[in-house]
Amino acid sequence: MEERGINRLRYRGLLNQLLYKAKDEFEESEAFLIENKEVNISLYKGEIDKFSIAESGGLSLRGTRAGRMGYAYTEKIDEEALDILIEEASENRKYIDDKEPEVIFEGSKSYKSQDNYSQALEEVGTEEKINFLKKLEAEALRLDKRVFSVNNCGYQEFYQNRHILNSKGVDLEDRTNGAFAFISVVVKEGEDTKTGLSYRIVKDFSELDYKKMAKEAVKNASSMLGAESIKSDNYPIVFENKTFANFLSAFSSIFSAENVQKGLSGLKGKLGEDIANPILTIVDDPFLKDGFASKNFDDEGTSTQVTKLIDKGKLSSLIYNWKAAKKDKVQSTGNASRSYKGQISISPTNLYVQKGETEFTGLIDLKEGVFINDLQGLHSGLNPVSGDFSLSAAGFMIEDGQLGKPVNQITIAGNLYELLKDIEAIGKDLEFSLPGASYIGSPSVRVSSLSVSGK
């Protein structure tokens, strides 16, 4: 911890030194530094299968001169790299002819001071993490004699530190961290085998309950034994919360103003229009408590803000960085994102469907329908422009308001933009999906009808 504090001071000194050197070459300049650390522990048959601590990061420079911006980055964060960065950014600038260049932002008037770093999580010892995994695996194997194996049992933890300094006065730093625990089990009955997963995303290690996770994974697997396809037809569909969150994540790029401007989103020209059932509100919230993508400023140094993308069915906003905002003559929403290697893009922070008023029993109060708790092909089976999707799915039949027989080997197909209008009930059970570049959440959602292809 003391070493990390020393590094932060050293990095700050390097950023100041880089900007000082860059002023002779550029009219405006910006230094951006990211430091990452990731811990990975996995267990197999009671023994540590993998233990790794990976550190990565880099330093980048943006600089403008004569209306052109140059870029350069290095993974060697020391004084020797500074002159090379300036030289490469200057050379790069000569060959970039962007009619709508990025801007170096002068900073927001104020910034929220929410602390998104958990000191308590950092202080959890390695032995405690390993003991948790051993208990998790042992509990899963104990619960049901049909558990054939635990094929994945792991714990991941990440830490990130960001620094932004520029010649227009922006001087910002923040840190964030979090943990992710998971278990996947295989159950076998005769020749039938099924896999079940359970995971938790936390900033408080004490929230990890190995008994609940093991029980959930075993139940998810064993409940699918005997699953069969169903006849092809149109059915009311209830999406499990995390499953709909994953579905929404796959389509989240449609809210990027840059994608809309390029014609890569079906939302082009629809701002202010009703595009969904009025019960649907989708929010991008960078201040979500314990959100994995919570941040007080974006990667251009803009103060972040809560943005309602769909407000009671109406498309009320897109998400912007400054380049896209200037093109639409609006303000940035504070959604600029980048790695130290690349140019600035746009990403959501904590994006989620606001929870509704319906209990789960009310969502499945159907004479007949399908409950979907697994979708495959999310990165290949959909088109964000047209909104069309065709995805392999699994779940359960809904019969007279109850979850019935397990279902697999089916395909659901439809159109996102039509589906948003066909949402007829939203649950109270808001959950977030596996963390990635952004953090997507949803309650369980019922759609009036979707095409299901089965046998």
Strand residue content: 35-45%
**DSSP summary, beta strand count:** 20
What is the average per-residue confidence, as pLDDT, rounded to a whole number?
Answer: 94
CATH-level-2 architecture of the largest domain: 2-Layer Sandwich
Major sheet strand order? 3-2-1-4-5-6
User: What's the structural domain tally?
Assistant: 2
Molecular shape: globular
Structural class: alpha+beta
Helix-strand sequence: HEEEHHHEEEHEHHEEEHEEEHEEEHEEEE
How does this structure look, described?
- The protein is α+β, with helices and mostly antiparallel strands.
- The protein has two domains: 2-222, PmbA/TldD superfamily (PmbA/TldD fold, 2-Layer Sandwich), CATH 3.30.2290; 233-453, no CATH class.
- 23% of the residues lie in helices and 38% in strands.
- It contains ten helices and 20 strands.
- The chain has helices at 2-22, 80-93, 119-122, 126-143, 210-222, 241-250, 257-261, 322-328, 360-363, 416-422, and strands at 28-44, 47-65, 68-74, 147-166, 171-189, 192-202, 233-239, 282-284, 307-311, 314-315, 336-337, 345-346, 350-353, 368-376, 388-399, 402-415, 423-426, 431-432, 439-442, 445-453.
- Helix 4 (126-143) packs parallel to helix 5.
- The longest helix is centred in the N-terminal third of the chain and has 21 residues, at 2-22.
- The termini are far apart.
- The model has no long low-confidence stretch (mean pLDDT 94).
